[in-house]
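**User:** Hello, beginner here. Are you able to go through the protein record under this note? It all follows right here:
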Amino acid sequence: MIKQTRAQAQHVLLVDAGNSLLISELGGREPAERTRGQTSVEILNRLSYDAVALGEKDLILSREELTQRLAEAKEVSFVSANLIDRSTGKLFAKPYVIKDIAGHRVALIGLTGGIPEGNSEFTVIPALDAARDYVTRLQSQADVIILLSNAGAEANKVIASQVSGIDLIVSGG
């Protein structure tokens, strides 16, 4: 389907709102769980995803495993504007990427919905605060701003109503 779409359309963005590393499209966890997300990254690379948000379920992996998965991502950018590595106090991933699509600069900002219970390696900035901050920063750099958010439908409705400048929210979670 992706090949067909790309053959029919000159400009295609392929994105995901998160929770992509351990859960397959069929709902099962194999081989993703056995390889700790490595096969998922291989697939995302092969399909040439433009950006994938890091989701709460992706954080079942340890910081070390996630660091390795992000290093393996050669064709895809994993993004989160609000996932903080507690060991450094800094963002764990790139907050956004900007793609040139048909002469338009398109910003893809990732938002992580939460942290799984028992995970003490990460914390999150509230999604609304991160969205407000990065949309404001990117308005002068991008023609189109898209959020890849797995904060959930209700949180995304609040973000859409309170943060001006967002063109589209790809929602998950």
